[in-house]
Write a structure and sequence with these properties.
The protein is α/β, with parallel strands linked by helices. Helix content is 35%, strand content 22%. Strands 1, 2, 3, 4, 5, 14, 15, 16 and 17 form a nine-stranded mixed sheet that branches. Strands 6-7-8-9-10-11-12-13 form an eight-stranded parallel sheet. Helix 2 runs parallel beside helix 3 and helix 3 packs parallel to helix 4 (162-173). The longest helix has 22 residues, at 304-325. The relative contact order is 0.16. The structure holds zinc ion.
């Protein structure tokens, strides 16, 4: 039997130019899909969700996050990239058991749902055994989030079972179409491992017909012109996602654009840790619309609203600073709130290769939608719809649907015992940090 849900009377921000924005509109959902968006839809037999004083928009898309670190939130908040490598990847990473990967991934996925992020790419470079991979996939599946599972190898060299296990997990757990979970290869790439390993990863991804993603142009490592080298080897393509790209040249952005490649940026963590200055405007100039990403909740909070603001602030800071250094003042800012809302929705979907299914409120697409509460003081009165979204916070996320199924209702996660999630996270955190001391820890930091 078909389940019909009518989300009625909200401010509809479709992020689809053909559907537009409606001051008072309805979204009709049948089972897992959006079937109509319009004013006063004549529907009798649907369950009604009252969207009065709500912004109704597509779910947000986070194109790169290491969910396994979710139980270690805040730890890296004052760290540089070097400290992060030393203490997180080399220090704490090897402590992770499959149970810890489950706990972190599950908490992180619930955190995403709560924040209106309906799709997330889990960049899971913590697969220390096949069991680690199985637990990560189980956590994503049990959470109810829509996710791209990026199978990643912690550090080079990859274990002898690695290649075989990538294929096992891809074929065993990701074979059905219409699944909320899809598969990708999270490659260390040529800056975090030898080029030969990258070639193996790309061959694997292409054999499986999935996206491959890699961190590129990161800090001093980014000086080696990896994109130029990959281009020389004829390896660029529309199936690649390049993360950060701070140290890439404009010529390399031209190569990425010409090959139809995609870029995921995380401006807040890039500015903190020393990846280099965020490249948002340079990407736009090259014709590349990036997707946004939080990267690590151990360093920054898990809000894509904050990431939208960080993206705008960094790019505007660069443009204003450049103009002032020329003795000029900008007559207009050139990048808008609307631009970053698109990056957090449809462009993120495009980055992950899911734009035919999600990213906008378009009839025929999956019913991944969120309702933002504008009854709260921070959004009372909307004078600029994209700006209201950018200036929203997670507490404005009132209701969340994924594939037509409610996962958050009236400000509360449904279907999960939050106390149990917290207990699981706490015991994993206590195990991981037992006897550990890193910079800032044991001094200003204490466990609570
Ligand atoms: Zn990352």
């Amino acid at each position: 039997m078909t389940t019909r849900t009518l989300v009625r009377g909200g401010i509809v921000f479709s992020v689809d130019p053909d559907v537009g924005e409606l001051p008072r509109g309805d979204v009709l959902v049948e089972d897992d899909r959006i079937v109509a968006v319009g004013e006063s839809l004549p529907v009798q037999d649907a369950q009604v969700v009252d969207a009065t004083n709500r912004i109704v928009m597509p779910g947000l898309v986070d194109t790169h996050r290491h969910l396994w670190q979710s139980c270690l939130r805040q730890l890296a908040v004052d760290w540089t990239l070097g400290q992060y490598f030393e203490h997180m990847l080399l220090g704490l990473g090897p402590r992770f058991t499959p149970e810890d990967v489950y706990a972190g991934t599950f908490l992180g996925a619930i955190e995403a749902l709560d924040a209106g992020i309906t799709t997330i790419m889990d960049w899971a470079h913590i697969m220390r055994s096949p069991d680690h991979a199985d637990e990560a996939v189980r956590a994503l599946r049990e959470s109810g989030v829509r996710a791209v599972f990026g199978y990643g190898n912690p550090l080079p060299p990859p274990a002898e079972w690695y290649r075989k296990d990538v294929i096992r997990v891809a074929e065993q757990s990701f074979s059905s179409t219409g699944d909320l979970l899809t598969f990708a290869v999270a490659s260390n790439g040529p800056e975090f491992g030898p080029m030969e390993d990258t070639l193996v990863d790309l061959e694997l991804a292409r054999h499986l017909g999935v996206r491959a993603s890699m961190h590129i142009g990161v800090g001093l490592l980014g000086r080696q012109r990896s994109v130029t080298e990959l281009n020389r080897l004829g390896l660029l393509g529309p199936d690649l996602i390049y993360i950060h790209c701070n140290a890439c040249t404009d010529a390399e952005f031209g190569m990425i654009a010409d090959s139809g490649g995609h870029v995921s940026i995380s401006p807040r963590i890039e500015m903190q840790m020393g990846h280099g200055y965020p490249v948002t405007g340079r990407l736009l100039d090259a014709g590349i619309q990036p997707g946004l990403s939080v990267d690590i909740v151990s360093g920054v909070g898990g809000s894509l609203f904050a990431e939208m603001r960080g993206t705008l602030e960094a790019e505007r800071g660069r443009r204003n600073s450049d103009a002032l250094s020329r003795g000029e003042a900008l007559s207009e800012l050139g990048i808008t709130a609307r631009d970053v809302v698109r990056m957090a929705t449809i462009e993120g979907a495009r980055t992950l290769g899911l734009d035919d299914r999600i990213g906008s409120l378009t009839p025929g697409k999956q019913a991944d939608l969120i309702l933002l509460d504008i009854d709260l003081p921070n959004l009372s009165l909307v004078n600029n719809l994209p700006a209201a979204v950018v200036l929203a916070d997670n507490h404005n996320v009132d209701t969340v649907f994924i594939a037509g199924r409610p996962v958050k209702v009236a400000g509360r996660i449904v279907g999960h015992d939050m106390r149990a999630v917290q207990r699981l996270a706490r015991s994993s955190r206590d195990r991981l940090l037992a006897g550990w001391s890193g910079p800032g820890y044991g001094g200003s930091f204490r466990r609570f």
